[in-house]
Amino acid sequence: MENDLAIEVKRFTDVRRDLGYTQSEFAKLLGISNTTADIERGRTKLSGKVVAELLKQFKINPLWLFGEATNQYLATSNVSVIPKVVTIDANENENMVLVNAKAAAGYPQNIQDTSWYRKLPAFDIPLPEFRNATYRGFQVEGDSMLPNLRPGEWVLAKAVESIQDVSANKMYVVVLHDAVLVKKLEKSPNGYKMSLISLNETYPPYEVDMQQIQELWQVNSKITFGLDATTETGLLRQLQESMEELKSQIRSVKN
């Protein structure tokens, strides 16, 4: 019997199952009375309203639904996650701006305010790994990424050019409209939402709309400082000492 069903009916059913909704839950989302059972049995045709809701809510391509296209989803908007502001030093090299936990609270609201960035400490790391890309330092707040990241540690993160570059095996600094978070990321099947995943299993994952993401930074290293690095001066001093030690090690290897 199922083989006799129209392609749009089969694909409608597949979409519901892939998204994990029951027939009654899916019906409620799409504005259908009771359940989607009659549609899935082929007794009721897909209305234009239902097709429009599938596009609006889940980016389902209407042409794919009726077997006229191979791409299941339509990207109806482009989400830009590139840095909104970068800073440079006197030699026109990009600085690595350091965003501590206190500053992170105001980061989303000041994300395009160049004067706000000037108030933050900035540092240039003279290593080739940190050239030809934009990096930013963020202080870890909370214990949601234990055991990998402890509260108060710093992550150095590289700017992500496209949200399509997200990897499930990496950690990211996610700048939302109301928060700055360090999480692992996983794209939803419809490419419309993003799951934010904590390493600490006491924190359940949750989804955000792609449009809520202002910037993305891929974490590539972390720095743990001593207790005296509680001020910006102490932080910069320890950064400078770490860099001098690194440069000494590099020189000794070359010699």
Question: Can you characterise this structure?
Answer:
- This protein is 28% helix and 19% strand.
- By secondary structure, the chain is of the alpha+beta class.
- A nine-stranded mixed sheet has the order 2-1-3-4-9-5-6-7-8.
- The longest helix is centred in the C-terminal third of the chain and has 23 residues, at 232-254.
- It is elongated and about 75 Å long.
- The model has no long low-confidence stretch (mean pLDDT 86).
Structure at a glance:
It is built from 8 helices and 9 strands. The chain is an alpha+beta fold and 255 residues long.
Largest sheet strand order: 2-1-3-4-9-5-6-7-8
Number of distinct beta strands: 9
Quaternary organisation of the protein chains: single chain
Helical residues, percent: 25-40%
Query: Could you list the spans in which at least 5 consecutive residues all have pLDDT below 50?
Result: none
The general outline is: elongated
How do the helices and strands follow one another from N- to C-terminus? HHHHHEHHEEEEEEEEH
End-to-end distance: 77 Å
Largest sheet: 9 strands, mixed
Q: Estimate the strand proportion.
A: 15-25%
- What is the helix tally? 8
Helix-and-strand structural type: alpha+beta
CA radius of gyration = 24 Å
- Calculate the mean pLDDT score and round it: 86
